[in-house]
Amino acid sequence: MGQKDKRINEEIRSYTVNVIGVDWEKLWVMPTAKALQLAADANVDLVEIGGMNEWVTIAKIMDYWKFLFKQQKNISKSKSNSKRNEIKTLRLTYKMWDHDLEVRRNQAIKFAKEGHPLKINLMLRWRENHFEKAAIEKIEQFINSLTDIYKLEWKIIKTGTVFNVMLSLKK
């Protein structure tokens, strides 16, 4: 569970509280002891949700542990959904043979089934820098083999000795 970051029940320090009920109805300002009694009668907690000053704070009558559980559940759900949009990267080389390209293509298809966008890198080393046109053709050939699954997000960009291209899923 998450860390307890709000004051609940007897931890509330103010003398009076502006109480909000379980169904978000406003119950006006009352002494903290009376608000605690209302919460105890309903078998829930009095939770401080905002402070005006040390004399009057805003408090809500709710089941705090149930609230924490739902909040933790929403956080874990959003974390699992964010993994789905993780960008996967494939590295190609200038001297790659057809079989190696086919293996990379199968990896790209697997990433597409999982719903990931794809980034393709091709780095030229040493004397390979003289063959930029052939490297671009190799990337274009690879991208053309994936046109039924991916669409080109942005054109091929060269930064230093590395060619980059971004592909997104077709919808």
Structural description of this entry:
- With 171 residues, the chain is of the alpha/beta class.
- Helices cover 35% and strands 32% of the residues.
- The chain has 4 helices and 8 strands; from the N terminus they run ββαββαβαβαββ.
- The chain has helices at 32-41, 64-83, 98-114, 132-144, and strands at 16-20, 26-31, 45-51, 56-62, 88-93, 118-123, 150-159, 162-169.
- The protein has a 4-stranded mixed sheet with strand order 2-1-4-3. A 4-stranded mixed sheet has the order 5-6-8-7, covered by helices on one side.
- A hairpin with a 2-residue loop joins β7 (150-159) and β8 (162-169).
- The longest helix is centred in the middle third of the chain and has 20 residues, at 64-83.
- The mean pLDDT is 81.
- Alpha-beta content class: alpha/beta
What CATH architecture of the largest domain do you see? 2-Layer Sandwich
Record the strand order, biggest sheet: 2-1-4-3
Q: Give the SSE order as H and E letters.
A: EEHEEHEHEHEE
Tally the beta strands.
8
Distance linking N and C termini: 37 Å
CATH topology of the largest domain: Translation Initiation Factor IF3
Quick one: CATH superfamily of the largest domain?
Answer: Translation initiation factor 3 (IF-3), C-terminal domain
Radius of gyration: 29 Å
Relative helix content: 25-40%
Q: What fraction of the residues are assigned to beta strands by DSSP?
A: 25-35%
Shape: rod-shaped
How many domains would you count in the coordinates? 2
Low-confidence segments, ≥5 residues, pLDDT <50? none
